[in-house]
């Protein structure tokens, strides 16, 4: 890391790997973030459109309650985990656990809730406990991902869109009551109408299937740059380990899989295209080891994130705004 700017309290440097960069703001001595909020706000506003992310390091621990207050200080209300796709627990008001998947599983790169038409503008990660080994939250610049993908692939996805098919209530994934935050079918149907989600009640209403066609790319409203913004590769059954994939298909038909993706017209996506997307993400990732009390701010359109496998206890909290 090469120092860029420093003053009596804060220093700035840049972490860069594979073309993805993040600005690091470090406290020169242990201080509370509350003591330098104006500077942090100004740095974040300046750096987000350029780098897509800011890592705050060397400050006093926030804890869940402190994270909630700190994120709220930026002026946008914290969001609930609406129409979520992975198991999380609410920790404090607008603060949640990070995805509660087993420690040995890799979570591929994705922009938060890019499988929908409504997503958070900003996502925060806060490291309360760093894993003994592994457990990074790798990030990748969505502008670089878009640039590095084959233009023919980009055009194909842009023309057709991505259809996300989800099945709930089958014992294999999140129940629909948890995803929609209600056990009232009328409320679920109203939500789906507003968000242009097709739904079908199955098994006398015990199970639910939804289909939604969403974007593959977007133009960032501030920078004007085009970003790759979907989860076609992540939701597709080919993203699962082969043994788990085969086991699932032995148990349920393809249309009953917990989640899967197609082109917007319902036709299958060639596996070679999905492999290319995954390869570009791998070749664009920046990964760093968490330190306790690290806080990472990401523009959710400009930067994707994932999770590396880990051993030992790990506690990373998440908050979303905008």
UniProtKB/TrEMBL annotation:
One Pfam family it belongs to: TauD
GO molecular function, one term: 2-oxoglutarate-dependent dioxygenase activity
Residue stretches making up the TauD/TfdA-like domain: 50-320
UniProt-listed GO biological process terms: antibiotic biosynthetic process
Swiss-Prot/TrEMBL keywords: Antibiotic biosynthesis, Dioxygenase, Oxidoreductase
Taxonomic superkingdom: Bacteria
InterPro entries: AlphaKG_dependent_hydroxylases (IPR050411), TauD-like_sf (IPR042098), TauD/TfdA-like (IPR003819)
Cofactor: Fe(2+)
Name of the protein in its database record: Taurine dioxygenase, alpha-ketoglutarate-dependent
TM annotation in the entry: none
Biological source species: Paraburkholderia megapolitana
């Amino acid at each position: 890391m090469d120092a860029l700017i420093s003053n009596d309290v804060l220093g700035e440097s840049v972490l860069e790997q594979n073309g993805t960069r993040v600005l690091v703001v470090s406290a020169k001595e242990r201080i509370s973030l509350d003591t330098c909020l104006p500077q942090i706000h100004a740095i974040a506003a300046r750096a987000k459109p350029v780098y897509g992310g800011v890592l705050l390091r060397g400050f006093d621990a926030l804890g869940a309650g402190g994270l909630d207050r700190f994120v709220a200080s930026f002026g946008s209300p914290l969001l609930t985990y609406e129409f979520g796709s992975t198991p999380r627990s609410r920790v404090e008001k607008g603060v949640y656990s990070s995805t509660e998947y087993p420690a040995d599983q890799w979570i591929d790169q994705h922009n938060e809730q890019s499988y929908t038409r409504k997503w958070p503008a900003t996502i925060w990660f806060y490291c309360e406990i760093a894993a003994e080994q592994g457990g990074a939250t790798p990030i990748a610049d969505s502008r670089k991902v878009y640039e590095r993908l084959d233009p023919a692939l980009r055009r194909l996805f842009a023309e057709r869109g991505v259809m996300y098919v989800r099945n709930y209530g089958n014992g294999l994934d999140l129940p629909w009551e948890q995803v929609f935050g209600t056990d009232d079918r009328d409320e679920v149907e109203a939500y789906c109408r507003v968000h242009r989600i097709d739904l079908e009640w199955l098994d006398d209403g015990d199970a639910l299937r939804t289909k939604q066609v969403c974007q593959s790319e977007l133009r960032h409203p501030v920078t004007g740059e085009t970003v790759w913004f979907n989860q076609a590769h992540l939701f597709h059954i080919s993203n699962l380990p082969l043994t788990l994939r085969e086991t699932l298909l032995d148990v349920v038909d393809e249309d009953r899989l917990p989640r899967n993706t197609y082109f917007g017209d319902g036709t299958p996506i060639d596996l070679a295209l999905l492999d290319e997307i995954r390869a570009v993400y791998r070749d664009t990732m920046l990964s760093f080891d968490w330190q306790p009390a690290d806080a990472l701010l990401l523009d959710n359109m400009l930067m994707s994130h994932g999770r590396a496998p880990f051993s030992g206890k790990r506690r990373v909290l998440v908050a979303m705004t905008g």
